């Protein structure tokens, strides 16, 4: 039941984001990432701010997540994405709970399964939200607003954000590798490219394997709870 509800939300999110997914929009995001890269030490702070805005505005943040890997590398990129996504999710949660309850209720009014979500979250808010966050395939933006209508506390909702870490690292890692691909044929490329890429590929496979495994466990646990 939860999976059906989330799929329905994902469809709505895709429809509402279609204009933001135009080539011109992605070009704008690419230019924004280049600008962030030119800011030096301030780049991380600016990136986090833009990520928060993207989360609140239902903008597809995938290119930002991948871009973080290119600009900041795996460790700092994952940290900046996690902070931006968490703060953006908390902001959307608070808006949904206190400022736009009517609008959020209208958006999810056709999803009868939301009652089941609400009941499950009321019993084990931290656990359910954490399991939802563990799966990078789950919708993100509208769900942040929708969870503001449930009885989950802000504390539990915030702590559950740690469930985003595996998926965040995986996508940032992909962006990091894409940045490495751009070095091929460049004078700044590492001396031992074969060894370098072997390590990178092993790291990527390991990251994907862990993320997929954790996602399967999370889905199974959610099906048992709902």
Automatic annotation (TrEMBL):
Cellular location(s): Cell membrane
The keyword Membrane belongs to this UniProt entry's keyword annotation: yes
Stretches that traverse the bilayer: 45-72, 79-100, 159-179, 194-214
Keyword Signal: no
GO cellular component term of the entry, any: plasma membrane
VTT domain location: 59-177
Family statement drawn from the similarity comment of this UniProt entry: Belongs to the TVP38/TMEM64 family.
Protein name: TVP38/TMEM64 family membrane protein
Organism: Aphanizomenon flos-aquae LD13
Biological classification of the source: Bacteria, Bacillati, Cyanobacteriota, Cyanophyceae, Nostocales
């Amino acid at each position: 039941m939860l999976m059906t509800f989330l799929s329905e939300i994902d469809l709505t999110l895709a429809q509402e984001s279609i204009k933001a997914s135009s080539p011109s929009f992605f070009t704008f995001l690419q230019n924004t990432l280049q600008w962030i890269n030119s800011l030096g030490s301030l780049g991380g702070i600016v990136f986090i701010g833009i990520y928060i805005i993207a989360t609140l505005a239902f903008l597809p943040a995938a290119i930002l997540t991948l871009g973080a890997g290119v600009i900041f590398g795996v460790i700092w990129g994952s940290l900046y994405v996690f902070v931006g996504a968490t703060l953006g999710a908390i902001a959307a949660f608070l808006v949904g709970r206190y400022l736009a309850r009517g609008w959020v209720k209208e958006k999810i009014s056709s999803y009868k399964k939301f009652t089941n979500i609400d009941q499950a979250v009321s019993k084990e808010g931290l656990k359910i939200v954490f399991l939802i966050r563990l799966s990078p395939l789950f919708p993100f933006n509208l769900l942040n607003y929708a969870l503001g209508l449930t009885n989950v506390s802000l504390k539990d909702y915030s702590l559950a954000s740690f469930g985003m870490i595996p998926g965040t690292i995986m996508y940032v890692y992909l962006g990091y590798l894409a940045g490495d691909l751009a070095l091929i044929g460049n004078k700044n490329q590492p001396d031992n490219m074969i060894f370098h890429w072997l390590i990178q590929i092993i790291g990527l496979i390991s990251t994907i394997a862990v993320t997929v495994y954790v996602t399967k466990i999370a889905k199974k646990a959610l099906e048992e709870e709902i």
